[in-house]
Structures are given as structure tokens and as C-alpha cells.
């Protein structure tokens, strides 16, 4: 990940993308941390077609919601809102997620009017509050929960034991 960041800072975005891809291959658990800078590197090096293929590969091996949301944004930009919503809906049936539900609500909100829109706004606010209090990472050694990733657990001081939490309310 650090190598990718260094390449990106030097403006070598194709090399940065390769470094981030290697980071995913080294430990797929860190997809939520790697995807944002990886996608930025893909975009800056004009490799979005490769980005789609790589994320589809990740989708088969990683069961969290981050690659789904990334592909949804890509489809929204490239193919339009309808394709993105259809993809997200089909993925949410396979891997239920509160973050995914929130993205679906946001994507369909502009089509709602009147009472239905007000109900969706309430649902979105409740969903947001549910996510606000959730730990996104947990130490596999001592169980420490955190909203942000730490390389060293603040509780037990072990290195590389903090992992994303998978489940409906998390990754």
C-alpha cells in the first residue's frame, strides 16, 4: 500500500495501480482500505476498463460490500443510473448490507415524491444512525473494535491483527 502511495505521489498512476493490485493479492482483507486509492490510480491512468475487470475478480473472492459499491459507482458513471441500481439490487440479494441499502436508497431517492420520499428520508436517516455507531474493524487477538483501521492494535499492541468486520451492518 505504501509503494502505491509513493508512486501516486510521484504521478506514476499506472505503477501505483499495479502496487495496489499486489497489495490486494497479498491480503484481500484490506480491500476496503485499498479500493479508494486504487480506483483513483486507475482513473488517473485511464484504465477504467481494467478497473472493472479487477473489481469483478475481487467480487468473486471477497464477500464484503466495498467492491459492490465501487462497481455500482463505475456503472453509474459509464452506463447510467438504471444499470447501477439493477446491479446493486442484485448484489444486495446475494450479500445483504446496511451500507449497500443506504447506497440503494440514495440512488433511488430522486425518483421518489411525496409521502414515499418522506418515508425514504426517514429510512435513510435511520440507516445512517445505525452505521454511525458501528465498529468497522476488530482485533482478531483481543476483540478491540475500531471505526478506523490501525496497523497495531491500540489495546493488545499486536501488529496486523486488526481486520474489517464482515456482516450485514459492516463490510
Q: Which percent range describes the beta-strand content?
A: under 5%
Q: Strand-and-helix sequence, N→C?
A: HHHHHHHHEEE
Global outline: globular
Q: Sheet with the most strands?
A: 3 strands, antiparallel
Provide the low-confidence segments as ranges: none
- Taking the alpha carbons of the first and last residues, their distance comes to 19 Å
Helical content band: 55-70%
Description:
This protein has about 170 residues and is mostly helical. It contains 8 helices and 3 strands, in the order ααααααααβββ. The protein has a 3-stranded antiparallel beta sheet, with no helix packed on it. A hairpin with a 5-residue loop joins strand 1 (about 135-140) and strand 2. The chain is globular and about 50 Å long.
Describe this protein with a few key phrases.
single chain; 171 residues; mainly alpha; three-stranded antiparallel β-sheet
